[in-house]
């Protein structure tokens, strides 16, 4: 995995797993940046306060979108892998008394040192087993990225570590990226009888929803989200949005409605000064991927979501 590691050998090393401490932060920021270089936006970088928030307040990172989850009793622990006293990996482990599944919510590791990822997964598995979790999931929203699910296929060392630990791939996504200034001029509405369009803005939640109504019934919707607040000060993120959802009622498909909704959403953000868009869709969803390519989107890496039954 070129571009991530400063190490040149795969020699056997002794790796110690310890709880996170602030003195680990600087090395972990560098490790996060090395991983970010292999996923879009490739020029994005972490800063220490942002990664500190990920470590300290992981369970709160997405509550502005899901305020109803604020009262769910959630626990998380941050584990650091050390080699010769230097941080070479980070894992965030989470679980809830309301959920029989535990999660290795986030994982970073020095790619030339497979022992780092292996030991972190081993320690996380033991911790979740002690909490009586029946399964372990790996593939939460990425807290150092724009929120895709799963591990990018460009992080091959992490995928290999989960496979060595007996995890199975159970889901996956295809990341795609585009520009708001690359979409065509806004086309006419797809059908004259669809006369009502509603734009709903939630600035405090960084959400924008465009809905299309027919006879007062919602028949199409496109939702966009802004950059997560903990990444506000990180270089390379501020000019991005994500398309979180687009859907059209079955009886109204093949009328150009999905295309129109995407164009409308992207033009809105272009006028607001946001120039880049990321989305993720099923790798085998060929109609959706064809639509996005018509709008100028490029294929990014795919992601993998893993699970292990205990």
Task: Summarize the model shown.
The chain is an alpha+beta fold. It is 23% helix and 34% strand.
What's the SSE blueprint?
Elements: E1 16-19, H1 25-36, H2 48-56, E2 74-83, E3 86-96, E4 99-109, H3 114-130, E5 135-138, E6 151-152, H4 156-164, E7 168-179, E8 196-202, E9 207-214, E10 217-225, E11 240-248, H5 257-271, E12 276-281, H6 286-294, E13 298-309
Parallel strand pairs: 4-5, 11-12
Antiparallel strand pairs: 1-2, 2-3, 3-4, 5-13, 6-13, 7-12, 7-13, 8-9, 9-10, 10-11
Written overview of the protein:
With 310 residues, this protein is an alpha+beta fold. The chain has 2 domains: 16-171 and 304-309, Aminopeptidase; 178-302, Aminopeptidase, CATH 3.40.630.30. Helix content is 23%, strand content 34%. It contains 6 helices and 13 strands. It has helices spanning 25-36, 48-56, 114-130, 156-164, 257-271, 286-294; strands at residues 16-19, 74-83, 86-96, 99-109, 135-138, 151-152, 168-179, 196-202, 207-214, 217-225, 240-248, 276-281, 298-309. Strands 1, 2, 3, 4, 5, 6, 7, 8, 9, 10, 11, 12 and 13 form a 13-stranded mixed beta sheet that branches. α3 (114-130) crosses α4 (156-164). Mean pLDDT is 91; it is low at 5-10.
Topology as a string of helices (H) and strands (E): EHHEEEHEEHEEEEEHEHE
Give the % helix: 10-25%
CATH H-level homologous superfamily name of the largest domain:
Gcn5-related N-acetyltransferase (GNAT)
Q: How many beta-strand runs?
A: 13
Helix/strand/pairing category: alpha+beta
User: Radius of gyration from the CA trace?
Assistant: 21 Å
Number of helices: 6
Rough shape? elongated
Specify the CATH architecture of the largest domain: 3-Layer(aba) Sandwich
Approximately how much beta-strand content do the residues carry? 25-35%
The total domain count is 2
Q: Average the pLDDT over all residues and give the rounded result.
A: 91
The biggest beta sheet reads: 13 strands, mixed
Q: Gap between N and C termini, in Å?
A: 30 Å
CATH class call of the largest domain: Alpha Beta
Q: Can you tell me the CATH topology of the largest domain?
A: Aminopeptidase
Low-confidence stretches: 5-10
């Amino acid at each position: 995995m070129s571009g991530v590691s400063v190490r040149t050998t795969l020699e056997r090393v002794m790796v110690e797993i310890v709880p996170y401490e602030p003195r680990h932060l600087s090395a972990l920021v560098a490790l996060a940046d090395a991983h970010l270089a292999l996923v879009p936006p490739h020029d994005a970088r972490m800063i220490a306060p942002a990664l500190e928030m990920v470590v300290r307040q992981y369970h709160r990172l997405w509550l502005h979108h899901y305020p109803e989850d604020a009262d769910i009793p959630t626990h998380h622990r941050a584990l650091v892998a050390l080699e010769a006293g230097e941080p070479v990996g980070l894992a965030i482990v989470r679980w809830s008394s309301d959920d029989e599944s535990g999660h290795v919510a986030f994982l970073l590791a020095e790619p030339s040192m497979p022992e780092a990822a292996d030991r972190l997964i081993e320690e996380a598995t033991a911790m979740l087993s002690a909490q009586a979790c029946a399964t372990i999931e790996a593939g939460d929203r990425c807290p150092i990225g724009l929120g895709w699910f799963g591990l990018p296929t460009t992080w091959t060392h992490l995928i290999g570590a989960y496979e060595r630990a007996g995890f199975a791939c159970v889901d996956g996504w295809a990341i795609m990226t585009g520009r708001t200034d690359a979409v065509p001029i806004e086309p006419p509405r797809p059908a004259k009888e669809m006369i009502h369009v509603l734009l709903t803005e939630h600035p405090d939640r960084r959400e924008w929803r465009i809905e299309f109504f027919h006879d007062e019934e919602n028949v199409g919707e496109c939702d966009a989200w802004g950059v997560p607040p903990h990444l506000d000060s990180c270089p390379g993120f501020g000019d991005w949005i994500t398309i979180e959802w687009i859907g059209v009622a079955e009886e109204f498909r093949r009328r150009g409605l999905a295309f129109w909704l995407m164009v409308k959403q992207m033009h809105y953000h272009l006028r607001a000064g946001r120039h880049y868009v990321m989305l993720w869709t099923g790798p085998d969803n060929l109609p959706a991927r064809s639509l996005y390519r018509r709008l100028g989107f490029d294929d990014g890496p795919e992601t993998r979501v893993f699970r292990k039954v205990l």
